[in-house]
Structure formats: structure tokens, C-alpha cells
Write a structure and sequence with these properties.
Helices cover 22% and strands 17% of the residues. It is α/β, with parallel strands linked by helices and 218 residues long. The strands form 2 sheets. Strands 1-2-3-4-5-6-7 form a 7-stranded mixed β-sheet. Strands 8-9 form a two-stranded antiparallel ribbon. α5 links the parallel β4 (117-122) and β5.
């Protein structure tokens, strides 16, 4: 019987030509709790991944669920840590950090591939901060705090939970709010790479989208 390997996804749309390691949003307790939040200012209530994986991309669930189980259950042996040939790579195109083991395994992937720059989006700063108290942050990892609250913009340098380890924040706003600050405005990620680079951009701001289209009202 063939041993299971971490699944690497080919991305499309905004993420065209990029690859990602993701997990199953629909079986993540944190994601499900945020998706069901009664507070409609929580961006997770608009989660594209929950919709996709429960409907028209349901066929993706088995491989992402295997990733969830492998990454969060035990520390991977080196033979299960993938070699990445890309220049830039994404974590969490779907899903969220599950636990500390999950994050430690992502760090192992980053450390095994020093030629590649990895970007990790997460709302779970407490997991990141706890692990990085014990392990060094790799130089080829860009950590992005995914701000859960719409129409707030967080500066990572001025937030004590983020300032030590996070490089950037990703913030969602209504299309007609903070228009002068919106700097993620429809280009493909491969043509921008602001999130995947060390630069002076510490706050990424994007209008709320549903199925890839800007939402005009809530």
C-alpha cells in the first residue's frame, strides 16, 4: 500500500500558477466556529472555502482532510516532508492552523526548502507565538496575520500580539471603505507578490469578495 504524502494543490483564479498546501476547512473546529459567528463583521462568515468544499469543489475534501490529519496529528518524518521547486509558495489557501503540531510541520517544510519563500496566512497568532518561543522563525517565511474583523486595519508593528513574529496583516474592508488604503485590487498574486516578499508593505487591504467578485453591500 502506497504511503500517503502531503497534497500540494495547483491554484487558479487570483492564485493562478501558484501552489499551496492547504487543509480541510469544514473539519476544522476553529474555522467552523468562526464561519457560524453571529457577528457579521467577522470575515469568516463569508468564507469562500466553506462554500466551495461543501458544494462545487467537494471533490477536494478527501485530499485536504488527509493533509489535516497528517499535519496536525504527529511530527512528520523527513521522508514525508515535500521538496518544493517553486520560488514562492502559499500555506492555507484553504483552512487554518489546527494546532501547534500543524505549525511545526509547516516550519519543517520551510526549513527543508530554503530556496523558496513561503507565506502563511493565519488568524491564530497564539499558536504561532507559542511555537516561535521555542523555535526560530525561518528567514524564508513571511507570516501574515489574517484580520478577522471587516473594516478594521491592523498595523502589525503596533500590535503587541503580532509585532514580534508577524510581518504583515491582511485586512478585508467593504468596497467603499478605506478606498485610499486598498492595495490588493484585483491583480493576480504572481504579478504582485507583495504578500510573498520582504518589503515596506506591512498592511494588505482588500475589498470583501464573494466567489472572487467584490461584494457591493452587506
Amino acid at each position: 500500500m502506497k504511503e500517503q504524502q502531503i497534497h500540494v494543490s495547483n491554484m487558479y483564479g487570483k492564485l493562478e500558477d501558484l501552489h499551496a498546501i492547504s487543509t480541510d476547512t469544514t473539519t476544522n473546529d476553529f474555522c467552523n466556529s468562526m464561519f457560524k459567528s453571529p457577528n457579521k463583521d467577522v470575515i469568516c462568515t463569508e468564507c469562500y472555502s466553506q462554500t466551495m468544499l461543501r458544494t462545487y469543489r467537494k471533490n477536494m475534501q478527501p485530499c485536504l482532510r488527509r493533509n489535516s490529519e497528517m499535519l496536525s496529528s504527529y511530527i512528520l518524518e523527513d521522508r514525508f516532508i515535500p521538496t518544493i521547486l517553486d520560488r514562492v509558495f502559499r500555506f492555507n489557501a484553504h483552512g487554518e492552523l489546527i494546532n501547534r503540531t500543524h505549525f511545526r510541520n509547516l516550519l519543517a517544510i520551510v526549513n527543508k526548502n530554503p530556496h523558496c519563500t513561503f507565506a502563511l496566512w493565519t488568524k491564530r497568532f497564539s499558536i504561532v507565538n507559542k511555537v516561535l518561543e521555542e523555535e526560530a522563525k525561518p528567514k524564508n517565511l513571511v507570516l501574515i496575520y489574517s484580520n478577522p474583523i471587516i473594516n478594521t486595519i491592523i498595523n502589525p508593528l503596533k500590535n503587541w500580539n503580532l509585532s514580534k513574529h508577524f510581518d504583515k496583516t491582511f485586512n478585508n474592508v467593504d468596497f467603499n471603505q478605506f478606498e485610499e488604503k486598498q492595495n490588493c485590487t484585483g491583480q493576480k498574486c504572481k504579478d504582485c507578490l507583495e504578500c510573498y516578499s520582504e518589503n515596506d508593505t506591512s498592511m494588505i487591504v482588500e475589498a470583501v469578495k464573494i466567489n472572487g467578485r467584490i461584494k457591493k453591500g452587506r
